[in-house]
Amino acid sequence: GRRTTVPAVVIGSGYGAATTALRLGSAGVPTLMLEMGRLWDTAGADGSIFCDMLRPDHRSSWFRTRTEAPLASILWLDLVNREVKPYAGVLDRMHFDEMDVYVGRGVGGGSLVNGGMAVTPERDDFARILPGVDPEPMYRRYYPLANRMLGANSPDPAWFEDTDCYAYARLSRRHAERAGFGTTFVPNVYDFDYMRREAAGEVPKSALASEVIYGNDHGKRSLDKSYIPAALGTGNVTLQTLTRVTSFRQEADGTYVLTTERIDELGEVRGTAEIACEHLFLGAGSLGSTELLLRARDTGALPDLPAGLGEKWGPNGNVMLGRANHPWDTTGLVQSGMPALGIDNRHDPDNPVFAEIAPVPAGIETWASLYLAITRNPERGRIEYDAATDSARLRWREAQGQPSIDAAKAVFDRINQANGTAYRHDLFGDTRAFENRFTYHPLGGCVLGDVTDAYGRVRGYRNLYVTDGSLIPGSTGVNPFVTITALAERNAERVLAEDF
Ligand code: FDA
Q: How far is the CA of 441 from the centre of ligand 1 (A)?
């Protein structure tokens, strides 16, 4: 393959990567962004960029023959998943022995597929999550900056109380309050004014047309509408899509040399190339960045990478569950795909839980209330490099998820008791009420202060950085992307001031 040379490379285009690319570009550093997925800016034959949740097609999934939705069944019926053609689709479910990890694929990473919930942790919690980071500048400067850049906004309260599309959230709020739990509004990067106009029939529908997890055609300020155009607009950042970094090494003069593989949208390999750079930023996500570093260490390319690599991985205590609603408690046919409320039990010392009230945008009355509970499960797993398959393995046992289930159960047992309701046992393929064999929030593997210094510089090597969710040790107590972004802002500022 050919070899090109650039001053800086950013691997990935999720929160950490996009933030870093903007700050490098703004500082005048010519930067190449490499993303294994495609750019999602062109409508297909049906006039849509993305497919919706109810009729998933090839665009939904990263090289699968069948979709793998988080809600496996309704009334045990496999109504949700579809056969699809293998394609560079937007959602990937990475399979490991006892845990699956959902990630976004494409320009914008997880921002393309996620629920858009933009949550800033409480300051006391932050000190627990990242004890090595001074909270003062985070809360004075970097969290507000991240929220502003990401376009976090909140619904008009009067509209929220009235609109059919949040009947499901108001019902869950009522049930939580009856059990003595408080709820809180959660800001979102989906434009709530656009959603209001969707509800009024004034604009094409997206959040109100079952669009979530496989992308949103309208309304959502994913990174390809915020940080990434700003980065490209500096004139110093170039984006190369459908390009996967397979490995990298370091030459005697300190130059990093990446091996990359280019594919087309059907997965055909179009060629390999080497890219050399002086500064290398890993923003490939918790699994992606950790795998690249482990491969570099364990194959001997960068033998001095630290021993803590791969450690302190966690699923952010994620547990999904459903409750059965009474026949008279209907939630309506149209549910906004973007969550807007959370049950806030974070201050309970025994069972701290932040449970997002999740939609079931099935287009039918399901008599189900769905939740994604975020618990503070202290269990941690480990990512390892498996030489035989040249890939990462996630060491996480299903039993390690039990503390998450216990905490969620303590909260939702009380809600069920207060309302005379029960759990749904038909949603996860078998009869379980609590599903935590997957996570939306993979965190850790290259933990700040262990594998890197306090600003994301990888120990043992110069000009090598981690910028994404792998810096955070396994848990944030709330949805993580604002924290990932704010931390990337903070680290980029320091690195640009000192290393360039
Ligand atoms: P992220 O995973 O976003 O980006 C990594 C990028 O690198 C990807 O685009 C990937 O394709 C690319 N890549 C990986 N390896 C590569 C390689 N070798 N070469 C080239 N490119 C490579 N969070 C939240 O705060 N609020 C919410 O509401 C939700 N909801 C939600 C729903 C769903 C369905 C999911 C899957 C996730 C969420 N999340 C969420 C989680 C959130 O999206 C997640 O924490 C962030 O996207 C993680 O950001 P990172 O920067 O770590 O990487």
A: 8
- With beta carbons less than 8 A apart as the criterion, state whether 306 and 450 touch: yes
Check 278, 356, 435, 489 and give the catalytic one: 356
Q: Ligand 1: which atom is nearest the Cα of residue 16?
A: 51
| Per-residue pLDDT band at 318 (split at 50, 70, 90) | very high
Question: Does residue 2 register a pLDDT over 80?
Answer: no
- Cross-strand partners of 386: 391
pLDDT, tens digit, 9 for 90 and up, residues 420-430: 999 999 999 89
Please tell me the predicted confidence (pLDDT) of residue 1: 57
Distances (CA, A) of 224 to 46, 234, 488: 22, 15, 17
* 493 is annotated as an active-site residue: no
Q: Residue 75 corresponds to which tokens in the numbers above?
A: 């009334």
**Residue 271 in contact with residue 251, Cβ under 8 Å?**
no
Tell me the longest C-alpha to C-alpha distance in the chain: 71
Q: Give the Cα separation of 88 and 97 in Å (integer).
A: 24
| Distance between Cα 411 and ligand 1 center (Å) | 28
Tokens of residue 469, six digits: 């969710």
Test site for ligand 1: of 68, 90, 114, 269, most ligand atoms within 8 A of the Cβ: 114
Q: 288 CA distance to ligand 1 centroid (A)?
A: 10
pLDDT surpassing 70 at residue 20: yes
- Condensed to tens digits (0 to 9), the pLDDT of residues 64-82 reads 999 999 988 877 888 789 9
Nearest-angstrom CA–CA distance, 360 and 350? 29
Measured CA to CA, the distance from residue 86 to residue 88 in angstroms comes to 7
pTM for the model: 0.98
In 3D, which of 146, 109, 138, 118 has the Cα closest to residue 442? 109
- Average pLDDT over the chain reads 97
Ligand 1 cavity residues, CB under 6 Å: 11-17, 34-37, 102-105, 109-110, 113-117, 213, 244-245, 283-286, 288, 440-441, 468-469, 479-481, 484
Query: Is 441 tagged catalytic?
Result: yes
